[in-house]
Amino acid sequence: MAFELSPDHIAAENRKRLKWLEEDYEHLGRQLARRGADIERLTERAMGFRVAVPSWGVGTGGTRFARFPNPGEPRNVFEKIEDCDVVFKLVRTTPGISLHIPWDKPESAAELRSFAEARRLFFDSMNSNTFEDQPGQACSYKFGSLSHTDPAVRRQAVEHNLECLELGVKLGARSHTVWIGDGGNFPGQVHLRNALERYLDSMRDIYRALPQGWRLFIEHKLYEPAFYSTVINDWGTSYYCARELGERAFSLVDLGHHAPNVNIEMIVARLIQFGKLAGFHFNDSKYGDDDLDSGSIKPFQLFLIFHELVDAELSRVPGFDPAYMLDQSHNVTDPVESLMTSAAELVRAYVQAHLVDRERLAAHQQANDALLALQSLKQAFTTDVEPILAMARHRAGGAIDPVATYRASGYRQRAAQARPAAARLGAGIV
Ligand code: PSV
Ligand code: MN
Q1: Is the pLDDT of residue 181 over 70?
Q2: Which residue of 93, 217, 369, 390 could cross-link 177, Cys pair, CB 3.0 to 4.6 Å?
Q3: How far is the C-alpha of 335 from the C-alpha of 72, rounded, in Å?
Q4: What is the pLDDT of residue 421?
């Protein structure tokens, strides 16, 4: 597509908003100074925050009932990167892209890499797909992949993961994420212990092939597509597998992959403590793996997760280096807008977590003062840090108001003209 979002357009939109932003920023700066916090330091932190966007998130998502495509949807990996570029240009925190193979398999890895690099984008984690069959594939994943009872199916699934690693090296990626849909729909269908053993055997083959400097991420999920038992169902199983595999294997937390009411921030704290936190697939949910926009349903939970992450960052936990990625399905919004606002929600939680007065909190914990302990978290969480986020974007060359700037650009309308609807996108339910 010839049309790109220009820096001039962003600058012109920012000029409309800069005066008010400066006023708000100054006021917040004075408020924070009273609390002993330096707004400039927080803005620097906001500017340093990074989260990768999922290539599969720029297409319209759907459910198993229907998918209602947006106009101008990307039809191939290059067009997906164009949309990721728009997100990056406006919010500036998202230069990384996670790819899903085979959905994003390019004809030429070199061409794809230079296409991304020309836009100052890079490839973050590779994601394999052994949860659906591909045309021409010898074996079916209907009854599982890496844990299948048939060694030929397991071999095919391992080979696919090895292909992802090989492609990832050419693309400059540094990690590989494995999520499998393996499990059973009926009690008795799957031998629970044997299936996990078979999974581990397959994963050992993948781990052995892990390129130098790479990390292997294991993603667990409670249920779906299997509705009775899932092989990698929870963080305990994921942690066990990561330990069995070796020091370069870690457990990835997708926020939507837990039972309702599970204390996810505690899982995060445990994985940090055990040196096995891979990172995140951020999203939000109300009922199950809803893949809603980050921070749209439970912003306090998101803040509490970042409270644990920032605590680990500030106390310099050895080896602490989590990978942040979004994994959302945008069924009723413009995906570019959802990705931008979600990235901003993460920065918001990150900056708010940096506002926690940790010395005071520690004193309240020591004194068993539950009420004031909660209050010190709430004080940080209820602080409106929007001027910091907007200033950080502005200083980095992004938009003070990303959604308004995007809408004023007419990008979606231009995309609709340049990209007539394709029959179907690679991704189904994402
Ligand atoms: C599975 O629900 C998941 O969270 C995994 O990360 C997949 O790779 C992704 O969604 C896309 O289906
Ligand atoms: Mn995920």
Answers
A1: yes
A2: 217
A3: 11
A4: 82
Distance from C-alpha of 252 to C-alpha of 281, rounded to nearest angstrom: 7
- Is the pLDDT confidence value at 62 over 80? yes
Name all contacts of 374-382 with Cβ < 8 Å and 24+ positions apart.
377/303, 377/304, 377/307, 379/355, 380/303, 380/307, 380/352, 380/353, 380/355, 380/356, 381/300, 381/303, 381/352
Give the Å distance between the CA of 179 and the centre of ligand 1: 7
Q: Whose CA is nearest to atom 10 of ligand 1?
A: 430
Give the list of residues 6+ apart from residue 33 with CB closer than 8 angstroms, or none. Answer: 39
pTM exceeds 0.90 for this model: yes
Average pLDDT over residues 50-78: 96
- pLDDT band at residue 4, thresholds of 50, 70 and 90? confident
Q: Which of 176, 281, 331 to mutate to test the pocket of ligand 1 (most atoms within 8 A of CB)?
A: 281
To the nearest 10 degrees (0 to 180), the angle between helices 370-381 and 358-366 is: 160
Residues 6+ apart with CB under 8 A from 279: 217, 250, 252, 253, 322, 323, 324, 325
- Alpha carbon 96 to chain centroid, angstroms: 10
| The token pair that represents 333 in the structure block | 């919004």
Contact (CB, 8 A) for 423 and 33? no
Residue 269 pLDDT more than 80? yes
Q: Whose CA is nearest to atom 11 of ligand 1?
A: 430
